[in-house]
Amino acid sequence: MPILEVHLLSGRPDEVKSELVRELTDAVHRTLGSAPEAIQVLLTEYQDGSWNVAGEPLTLGKAAARD
Amino acid sequence: MPILEVHLLSGRPDEVKSELVRELTDAVHRTLGSAPEAIQVLLTEYQDGSWNVAGEPLTLGKAAARD
Amino acid sequence: MPILEVHLLSGRPDEVKSELVRELTDAVHRTLGSAPEAIQVLLTEYQDGSWNVAGEPLTLGKAAARD
Amino acid sequence: MPILEVHLLSGRPDEVKSELVRELTDAVHRTLGSAPEAIQVLLTEYQDGSWNVAGEPLTLGKAAARD
Amino acid sequence: MPILEVHLLSGRPDEVKSELVRELTDAVHRTLGSAPEAIQVLLTEYQDGSWNVAGEPLTLGKAAARD
Amino acid sequence: MPILEVHLLSGRPDEVKSELVRELTDAVHRTLGSAPEAIQVLLTEYQDGSWNVAGEPLTLGKAAARD
């Protein structure tokens, strides 16, 4: 019955997010043995200014290695 | 900079949880391209009685297909 | 001082959400005895594609029994 | 498919928490029409010192009207 | 590596939110000794009707002492 | 009415956590103008193995600059 809340910066293409969801679901299924229909993945996307590191807003692409 | 909050029932072996963490981290790295050191996975485990479905507590193993 | 974070699919009418909030507040007041003004209910609504089960997006109405 | 995360102070009897879970589940079922088995209620209890108001820890019973 | 999730009513000016983020980051750095770049602050803003107290929606400014 | 959920590694002394709570409350009061009694700070501490970066558990002290 695992629930994954995924926090990420806004701005990724839909197909990338769909692929992320499928891969995370597979990872839970493979390692915990949960039935796929029991695995929930909830995405929360943060707009510019809502995600901050070291007191400054993070923007997708500005800090490639971290975002 | 993705953060994954994983909610799961308490009671899984440590090595299973470690494997879960590694697989989830890989899935984020592969699909979003984030550097591994920018990916955080936080596990929250729920004791008996804290996770409820249909008003009744869920217990690991009792409902194999779902937990 | 209970706080309820309610995660639900986007798309319900305002009056339904208001009724949900009132009923949840009453339920906490009745069972825990908390003063109503100490009970907070926070709604988070998920747009299409943000709530996924079995690796696929859930849409309000598509899966009537579950949403 | 609603998920309720309930944050409350630690220290309530098990039967009170069970009753709370059932009442919350009923409230969601009545107002949103969700099937009971699609409604999840997750309880998170906070020990002394972990829940703070006005910079000071809140303790169950110390502030009857609020807890 | 602390993460702060800040829940607040929508409607504050950007410069107020930026100042809030910087002050919170400083507070964590001063008291825990964490490096600033290890401190993350995530803001979640609630629109009208999403934040409820005593079963009624809270609006910024309507209840000055509380919002 | 702001709520701060603070996620941090387990193992800090109580007086450090109390000081953190007071400083965070002050920061919210100063920047948003909220009354102190309307500001809630909830601490969630993560035991060894529950907080992971790059797929590996983070331990307080092991990675001084980050924890």
CATH topology of chain A, by name, is Macrophage Migration Inhibitory Factor
Shape of chain A: elongated
Q: Tell me which CATH architecture of chain A applies here.
A: 2-Layer Sandwich
Which stretches of chain A of 5+ consecutive residues score pLDDT under 50? none
Instruction: Say what oligomer this is.
Output: homohexamer
How many distinct folded domains of chain A?
1
Number of helices of chain A: 1
How many extended strands of chain A? 4
Name the CATH superfamily classification of chain A. Answer: Macrophage Migration Inhibitory Factor
CATH class of chain A, named: Alpha Beta
Structural class computed from helices and strand pairing of chain A: alpha+beta
Largest sheet of chain A at a glance? Answer: 2 strands, parallel
Order of helices and strands of chain A: EHEEE
- Largest interface chains and counts: A-B, 31 and 31 residues
What share of the residues of chain A does DSSP label as strand, in percent? Answer: 25-35%
